[in-house]
Amino acid sequence: MKIAICGVTGAVGKEVLRCIKDLSLQYDTLDCYASANSAGKTIESPLGHFVIRPFSLDACSGYDLIFLCVSGSFSARYAEKLLLNNRYVIDNSSNFRYDDQVPLVIPEINFHTVKNHRLIANPNCTTAILSLPLYPIYQAFGLKRIIVSTYQATSGGGQAAMDELREESLRFLQEDAAGHHHFVHPIPFNLIPAIDTFQPNGYTREEMKVVWETQKIFEDDQIKISATAVRVPTFRAHAESITLETAHPIDMNKVYSLLGTTPGVTLVDDPENHLYPMPITASGNANVEVGRIRKNNVFGENGLDLFICGDQLLKGAALNAVQIAQHLFK
Ligand SMILES: NC(=O)c1ccc[n+]([C@@H]2O[C@H](COP(=O)([O-])OP(=O)(O)OC[C@H]3O[C@@H](n4cnc5c(N)ncnc54)[C@H](OP(=O)(O)O)[C@@H]3O)[C@@H](O)[C@H]2O)c1
Known about the structure:
Layout: E1 2-6, H1 11-22, E2 29-34, E3 42-45, E4 48-51, E5 53-54, E6 65-68, H2 72-85, E7 88-91, H3 107-110, E8 119-121, H4 125-141, E9 143-152, H5 159-175, H6 205-218, E10 224-231, E11 238-246, H7 252-261, E12 265-267, H8 279-282, E13 288-295, E14 303-310, H9 314-328
The protein binds NADP nicotinamide-adenine-dinucleotide phosphate.
């Protein structure tokens, strides 16, 4: 088993290393690639240290599995070429997610779509975290409408975005003014209701990704979804406030029992004891926290509200990618 990680110095790539260790994914060879800027440097990880190789198509050849953790334009340029000399490519970018010929996979939900494919797309972080607890509700009660507002951590913008939150927060506390480079506005002590580019319909691309990807993963394009995606000044773990209209009346006991037994989901729903999902508890954890579960007073018997929080570098990226690999080589 020969594995390569491309983009190992990034927010996702580093976590792929950690997840390979945590999930005990077996390998004989594990090679780490990044840009020429990082070539020759060493990366420390729970699996030991690795000397970073400069990526090229010639060098990145002969692997059973490649984790691509770079960018959409990088994947557009190289992913299919990599399939010529490697067996599987799991792509973390958004480049192939909406391609009918490429499966978009959350193993707990739709691993069957991989079939004979060798290029597999890993979903958007917000969608992955949302889909995991919603799928059992969808199966039990059907879903007509999903209205979701997100509170997305800076890590969703990559390592540079997390660095900017740290550096500009310090600057703000010392100088009473924060700058910005990665974000279009200062992020410390602020929130920005715009992630990715605006679309002609007024939604951002990040918001439309939730629509396109949830429908593709659930294999149901009849579910109506409206999302508002907001960047908030946390380091990692996205939170999402969700309002659902189901096709069939909600049975709250069943909801609790489903969410309490869904793999990858942890119920954190004890408001009297101040327990609910939060980035501070979800960060670094594989499971998506679900709480604030209640019937909503808009859709009546068919209405359910939830608040969820999940580490989007884990289930929203690296962990899901390594779980796909586990299923491929089971
Ligand atoms: N962050 C998230 O929460 C998240 C979630 C889901 C999906 N994704 C997707 O995952 C991908 C990686 O995101 P990220 O947040 O990890 O980004 P990131 O922190 O900016 O890291 C980018 C990585 O790509 C490498 N790279 C850049 N140009 C390269 C080249 N020419 N050849 C080889 N490597 C190159 C960088 O290496 P150097 O250090 O050498 O420049 C770095 O390792 C993106 O497509 C993103 O949309 C991210």
